[in-house]
Amino acid sequence: MPCSGLVLLVPSSLPRVGFAYWFTTELANYVVILPVLLTLPEIPARGVMLDRLARFRPSLATIMPVVALGLSVVGSIVIGGPGAIAFPVPALLWCSLTYGLFPVTLLVLLSSLAMLGAETADLFRFVHVEDLIDSATSFRLGLTLLALGPLTVATITAVHRKLMLRLDRAVRMDGLTDILARRAYLDQSAALLSRPRPGFWSGVAVLMIDVDHFKQVNDRYGHASGDAVLVAVTDAISGQLRRNDLFGRIGGEEFAITLPDIASADAVTLAERLRHAVERLSVKVGEGQPIRVSVSIGVVHRSRPPAGGLIELLPLADAALYEAKATGRNRIVLCSSSCRAMAAAE
């Protein structure tokens, strides 16, 4: 007799056959439905969802796995027979390598429901035997094993992606301050300066920042306190920056910021705001007196992207920083002819 859904209780004089049917049916339910519930993501806010939908741009590479899965499921139903259940396997594996874990569990559920519906309608044309329950039991067991492969591959792929993201973050971000590491800052700034700038563009500025007398902080309070100072300084500076500004740790207590699309006066104003934000800090370490710190900042500005890219601007900003430190620290110096001469001499 045909089945009417995922779960169907068929009376049988043989408890063994009835138990086998119940077990395979429940197993199929758990393997197909439970992963969807376990991986169900949180529903984002309406504004976030609309923003994601607006930015969604499907491509042929993202559509083809679903199309292949749909065609393979239809093909398995049309061709029929015991072996037709395996037709969607390649497409499901393709999906598991292309999409995230939740979309794969959803596709496995939908394809399984389609095939269960076809089996219920007796479209697979199984060879009829005296005990018809054997075909239904075997079908559900096969469907369960069919779902386990793509789910396993999708799980392994999701774990691999997480590990790669963690590795990429470890390479790109500074482990202490959680801002861009030196190489990532240089690469992203170079890429930013090399992009074409259609229409009006105010220019670009690069800031070199150095924590004043940082060696004395380490010598007096210890390196752990010095690390706390660096974290506090970067947090204070990060809170003043715009969304597209690039902030990186060049090394030790030295930092750099790339400010795209900004006028010279605005760059100096922002640098002064950063200096004030750090000057107001009072870093509490241990039971002693809070540590007060300041920064010196060198600023260089170009109204057009420099031909030499970031490599051209960094020595100028560094020369301006040297001048700020040489003239008393806790101040800002905009690169002028003197710092250009100093950078050229180096």
Tell me the number of helical segments per DSSP (H or I, 4 or more residues long). 12
Characterize the biggest β-sheet: 5 strands, mixed
CATH topology of the largest domain: Alpha-Beta Plaits
Helix/strand class: alpha+beta
CATH architecture type of the largest domain: 2-Layer Sandwich
Strand order of the largest sheet: 2-3-1-4-5
What percentage of the residues does DSSP assign to strands (E)? 5-15%
Spans where pLDDT lies below 50 across 5 or more residues: 1-13
Question: Your description of this structure?
Answer:
The protein has 346 residues and is α+β, with helices and mostly antiparallel strands. It has helices at residues 15-38, 46-55, 60-79, 89-98, 101-120, 133-172, 182-194, 214-221, 223-238, 264-279, 310-326, 337-345; strands at residues 204-211, 246-251, 254-260, 295-302, 332-334. A 5-stranded mixed sheet has the order 2-3-1-4-5, with helices on both faces. The longest helix has 40 residues, at 133-172. Residues 1-13 have low confidence and may be disordered.
